[in-house]
Amino acid sequence: MKKIIFLTIISVFSSGIYCQNSTQEQPVSFRTTVSALRTSEMSVKTFASLDIKKIEQEDIEDEANGRSPRFGFKHAVNYNLDNSGEWTVMPAGDKIWRLVISCKGALSINLLYDKFYLPEGAKFWIYSNDRKHSIGAFTSLNNNGDRNDIQGFATGLVYGDQVTLEYWLPKEVKEVGIISIAYVVHGYRYVLLPNAIELGYDESLPCQVNINCSEGANWQNEKNAVALILVNGNRWCTGSLVNNTSGDCRPLLLTASHCLDGYDAGLNNSPFLTH
Q: What is the pTM of this model?
């Protein structure tokens, strides 16, 4: 059975709230003096512009087949702490690993990992070239398994055509950890657009009720259950958090079958990442 990777981002469309499990602190390099990242072959990975005409034709076929909309092209890669990036040793003995990924013409970049394991105390960030958009820090709390059973991971979108990965390893942490990237997703559509006909932000069709208008006044609590789903890292869909008759607040998400990318999801066999 094919595994489907879900990165469920709790995203309230009305207010633009974005939440992924992280410490939401600034990268170390934003707060201290770090030597400039050397632009060696190991430090920067660059991808050319996409063949948009070919991609548009593929998207038309996908729509005809009922698949969830695609927003990014997946580049298969093999980047990890050993074969890519640049390590910098700080005066106090801490270490910082950084890697720049550049996708020409990209609106966003997000990453899928075949192995992801951070030791306790280590922190990982991803941020845009202008430093205006940063996600992280991701920590050992984001591990989907232990050292003997390391699982994959997925991080959300960072907007722009170039991002920097930054991994901070305090001197007292002796275990290096594992960050192994399997796919770089080259975004060519903004996923915040609410549907395929590309309505503007906060707009709706005449037959729909905008949750932010007076007609939606009685649904202000329920709207917080709406979630944006990234399927396989390069397609988007929506779902809703639901409770059950036990009222035990299990993390259940209701979505449509076409959001499963045309496959039987088999959630017991798939990494289902909720943030």
A: 0.79
